[in-house]
Every structure is written in C-alpha cells, then in structure tokens.
Amino acid sequence: MSPTGLPPIRLHDLRHGAASLMLAAGVEMKVVQETLGHTSSAFTADTYTSVYPQVATAAAEKTAALLFGKDDQDASGHVISLRS
C-alpha cells in the first residue's frame, strides 16, 4: 500500500484500463490500435476484446438489427437487445 492507502498502480495498468474502456464505449478497434501505437489491429483485438465480452454482444446485436431491419431498433435508432 502507498502512503495514500491506495494500491500501487503502474502506468501500463492505466494504459490497459484506458484501452478497455474505449472498447467498452464502442470506439472503433482501429482507433484504439492507433491510440496505443500497436502495429496491427489484430494484436489490439487479441489483447483487449476478451476483457469486455459485452463488446462482442453489442456487435452481434448490431449485426442482427442490420439483418432483420428497423423492427429491432427503437425510435432513436438504438438497437433493442435481442437477448431475453
């Protein structure tokens, strides 16, 4: 513990947290990759997409809404969850 009573945190931990939060907020993988300076978005995806499974769920719901049409969206265009 530090003198403040908080656990120590490395700068890399903050970087990882920021990337995870960007993906959870729906930021495009390419933008996250460029922000982090990774040479490929595949590396970024392999590293971070497992952190937030809801990112994959959101992608599936958006794809389903595209396939099934506007019936799966509310009046503002937001995707309605297909999960029961």
Describe the protein's architecture and organization.
It contains 4 helices and no strands. It has helices at residues 11-24, 29-36, 41-48, 53-68. The mean pLDDT is 78.
* Rg, alpha carbons: 17 Å
What profile does the largest beta sheet have? none
- Order of secondary-structure elements: HHHH
Any low-confidence stretches, pLDDT <50, length ≥5? none
Classify the helix fraction into a percent range: 40-55%
Average pLDDT reading: 78
Please give the alpha-carbon distance between the first and last residues: 43 Å
Strand content: under 5%
Number of helices: 4
Secondary structure: number of strands: 0
Structural class by sheet pairing and helices: mainly alpha
Overall geometric form: elongated
Describe the protein's topology.
Elements: H1 11-24, H2 29-36, H3 41-48, H4 53-68
Tags for this entry?
84 residues, mainly alpha, 0% strand
Short characterization:
The chain is an all-alpha fold. The protein is built from four helices and no strands.
